[in-house]
Amino acid sequence: MQIRKANSSDSTSIINLLKASLGESMIPKSEELWNWKHRANPFGASPVLVAEDDGVICGVRVFLKWEFLQGDQLIKACRAVDTAIHPDYQGKGLFKSLTLSLIEDLKEEGIDLIYNTPNAQSSPGYLKMGWEKWGKLPLKMHFNLSLRKSKNQSPASDWTSISSIIHTIEEFKFTSENIETNVIPGYIGWRYISCPLFPYEFISDGETYLLIYRIKEGKIGKELRIVDFFQLPDFGQNEKKQLNSRLKTVQKNESVRFTSFSGLRFKNDLPIDMGLMPVMSIGPEVTLRQVSSTDDLLQKPWAWSLGDLEVF
């Protein structure tokens, strides 16, 4: 058994292993998804380790590179994402060996921390390897009690029409005491426009704000899920009114049962009208793992958006 860094020729074998171990589930495994996720990422190519037995790849562990900013301080991070062990090799400690080996590699790269949103089944394993529970994100929901089926439907978003504000957002020097994603050039295009998993839509005036959302079908009806919101200094009361008016139009046209917003970025000054329901701590559960950082990660002023934490 050998653990080694993956190379470009391993992609097909890795994707086949993911299918054999995990199935297609909600997220289909494909070359397109792998390349978008692990090669096109503007923060850098994903570090990947594989376990190989007699020339056959039987395990894989992948971390997705990410960057955060707190003021002028750059925080290099990774998100623990894809992992798979072939059914014939499960229960032999490969997952732990691959994960801890990859963490050692990240120390040499100067990565500060790893974060993820594990489910109830995988969380205990991460905690045993040094992850700590930060907690669940707050979730704000607004239900449409007068839902009627609309004859209209909002057109698919034309992302090329807002290329100017995307460029401005990615070039703007946001300064905050909170820790937010480092929105570098190419980030919005990669994360939302070219994402092969979901069709993301937007609401924007092209100058002062950009709200990104997706429509999700659920058991109780359509959900309008707000995943990110960017506002520039000229965003004021008039722009706020326009934003909420446009949001209501989309909710009506799409026959949305409820709208959700989860995250910390606008916890105290959310400019979106979300009704009177209280904020609930039932969003994704976040765990953190120190790599090179010596700070108390749990006490840092995190300001995640759902776009930083959505399962992908």
Describe the structure.
This is N-acetylglutamate synthase, GNAT family. It comes from Algoriphagus aquimarinus. GO terms for molecular function: acyltransferase activity, transferring groups other than amino-acyl groups. By secondary structure, the protein is α+β, with helices and mostly antiparallel strands. The protein folds into two domains: 2-135 and 286-294, Aminopeptidase (3-Layer(aba) Sandwich); 139-262, 3-Layer(aba) Sandwich (Aminopeptidase). Helices cover 25% and strands 29% of the residues. It has eight helices and 13 strands. The chain has helices at residues 11-22, 31-38, 94-109, 123-128, 163-171, 187-193, 237-253, 306-309; strands at 2-5, 48-53, 56-70, 73-85, 113-116, 132-136, 139-143, 180-181, 201-204, 209-218, 221-231, 256-262, 285-290. Strands 1, 2, 3, 4, 5, 6, 8 and 13 form an eight-stranded mixed sheet that branches. A five-stranded mixed sheet has the order 7-12-11-10-9, with helices on both faces. The longest helix has 17 residues, at 237-253. It is globular. The two termini are 29 Å apart.
